[in-house]
Amino acid sequence: MYGKLRELTGGYFYQAFVGLVAGIAGVCGSFAVAGSTQGFVGVRMSSILINNTPGSVVDLVLENLGKYGQPFAFVSAVLLSVALIGGLSFGGIVFGRYANRKYVSAVFAFLLTALVVTAMTGVFVASFAAAFVAGGVVALFDYRYEDEGVEFQPKPDVERRRALQASAGTIGFAGASYLAGRFRTPMDDEEFLGRGSSPPLEVQRMLDEADEKSLELADAPGLVSEIGEFYQIDINTVNPRVNRDEWRLNFTGQVDDETTLTYDELTSMTDESEHRFISLRCVGDDLNGRQMDNSVWTGVPLEPLVEEAGANSDYVVMHGYDDFFNTVPTEVLRNGFLAYGMNGRLLPRGHGHPVRILLPGHWGEVNVKWVREVEFVSEDGDGYWERRGWDGTGRVKPVAKIWSAEALGDGRVRVGGHAYAGLDGVRTVEVSTDGGETWNEATLSERLDTEDRDVWRQWAYDWEAEEEEYEVVARMTDDNGNPQTEERSGSSPDGATGWVSRTVRPHSLGMS
Length: 512
Ligand SMILES: Nc1nc2c(c(=O)[nH]1)N[C@H]1C(S)=C(S)[C@@H](COP(=O)(O)O)O[C@H]1N2
Ligand SMILES: [Mo]
Hints:
This protein has helices at 2-8, 13-34, 41-52, 55-65, 69-99, 104-121, 124-140, 156-184, 201-213, 263-267, 303-309, 330-334; strands at 248-253, 259-262, 274-281, 292-301, 315-320, 325-329, 337-342, 345-346, 356-358, 371-377, 399-400, 404-407, 412-420, 426-432, 440-441, 443-444, 457-464, 470-478, 500-504. It is α+β, with helices and mostly antiparallel strands. The longest helix is centred in the first third of the chain and has 31 residues, at 69-99. Residues 230-235, 280, 282, 320, 322, 324, 351, 364-365, 367-370 line the site of the ligand Nc1nc2c(c(=O)[nH]1)N[C@H]1C(S)=C(S)[C@@H](COP(=O)(O)O)O[C@H]1N2. Molybdenum atom (MO) is lined by residues 233, 282-284, 364-365.
């Protein structure tokens, strides 16, 4: 049978087989080193696949495969990766055959794989591992040039034996790589939405969009804050631990019908569910502080739920399981969102697991975490922080942060940061390097695709820095054309105002 196959494939069967084994081994090697991260060729391939598949096809796949859509995309991506590294290795083997020297094939397979996979993932170590393993497989099975100068003669018996060894070896290696890779996969305490091994496809598309639109800033996050880096503020020393099955949201007070929502009911509202970029900022945030972040949130708009309860009052008090509470106009709640997912994962405990409220455009404190009750009332009242002198239930104030300053290495300095103005959006950021005498327009990150404007943008500005010291000032203008006020105030009681300014000394940034 082996002989037949060999004939059928024009003498390339063995080479193709070795290529395939090298492909499998290479993907395993990549996983062993990278685990399930962006460094793994399969994860990158999955992003490339999703981003290059027309939305209509993705929707079709999701409709027909439902919860199997994600595993299907991932398995396809892994198979494509095997085909890619296998193809590159096969290419190496074919090149090598013409050189007619031992190990030339392996070197070609190694170089080709290292180049292409590094270009894809941008992670050198894991790509090197993939290339090393693929090249190794090719070297191992390169029996042909043992007698240098002697014309190549196929030896089917040697090939058959080695093919069997290769298969056994690869199965063993795959098992070991799986264990190594699992060990390397960062343990996030929250599982992915839909119980998959990666974010839902639509969320992945948004995360990739944010990744692509992010500006490179040395000391500031991208357009999406990672879970764990997203700021956390609450009144608790130990956060509530609320079981998903036991979670209830009660709609009470001035309503036609008091209604209760369970977690299952909420998460099965698939027709209403959405994924949205929403930024948050604490009213207590210093002018250039870091209590400001952005994520992709998954949840359901509150409007239909408020409707269903038949709310008929002007205000609503939102209560958390930690007895934190806050009052906002009912209108504001109607535009809100009940979130149970963050960056493709179940909402983490520190951000309000299992469900929190998000009220676009408003200060952080009204985004009640571990929410248990919305109580419709006729009059405005003080919330937890309002009783302590704050006034943080209104709309956020605009700010352009200067979070990052770095020497670019060619005499230029780059400053940058994030600008956010809630529902008013960010149109421009201007930068002064002379304390506000003269102004230049900064580069802005492309807008993220959202319904409202409640999402931050990054800005960056580079200049030739020849002086000892610069006083850098940043200011923004919102989408309605309103400039940010210059007038300074501290964060208490209703949020900091003024232009951020920061002294930048190029030499202390490591510039020679
Ligand atoms: N239940 C509850 N919700 C809460 C708080 C809290 O202490 N308890 N803190 C609020 C404040 S002051 C802010 S700024 C945001 C912060 O949300 P984050 O921790 O997810 O960033 O949550 C708000 N929601
Ligand atoms: Mo806050």
